Amino acid sequence: MSQMNVNAQKCMVDWLHEHDHSNISTNKTNQFDIVCTVDQDLPRILYEVEVNYSWQGEWPETWEEVFISEEKAKPLEKWSKECPDDILTFVVFCNDLKKAWHIDGSTLLECAVRNKFFCISTSDAYLMDMTYDESGR
User: What is the CA radius of gyration of the chain?
Assistant: First the structure.
C-alpha cells in the first residue's frame, strides 16, 4: 500500500471516530481496508479506501465518472458472497484528502468495467467533505 493510501486510511479512521463509529479495525487479515460498527445490533460497516492522484482541488464538472481500480474486485466478491448483510462502501479521496466520493458496494456490482477500472457515474456516488473541526463536526 502506498504512503498516500496509508494516509487516506488514517484520515478515514479519524473521520469514523468523529462520526461515532466504534470497533474500528484496519487489520488487512479481514480482507477489507477498514471494518467497524456503529451499534452492536447493526451490520458491520466495511470500507475500501483509495486516492485519486489526479484529483486536485474541486471535482472537475467535466468528470462524470469516478474510477475504482479493478483490483478492488476481490473485496467486492468477498462481500457479495460471504457477508452481504454488512455494508460495503468504497471511498475515493482527492489527493489532499479533504474530500472523498463514497460509493455503495452494490453500485460496483452493477457498473461497467473499462480499462481495468470500475466506472461509476457521479450521480451514483456521494461527494463528502472529509475535514472536521474541534467541535466534532
Answer: 14
What cell was used for 23?
470497533
Q: How far apart are alpha carbons 84 and 56 in whole angstroms?
A: 34
- What is the residue whose three cell numbers read 488487512? 28
Asked if residue 125 lies in contact with residue 106, where contact means CB atoms within 8 angstroms, the answer is no
Alpha-carbon distance 4 to 134, whole Å? Answer: 24
Q: What grid cell was written down for 73?
A: 474486485
Give pTM, 2 decimals: 0.91
Successive 10-residue mean pLDDT values, the chain, 137 residues: 84 91 83 90 93 93 94 94 96 95 96 94 95 51
Which sign, positive or negative, has the C-alpha torsion 106, 107, 110, 115? negative
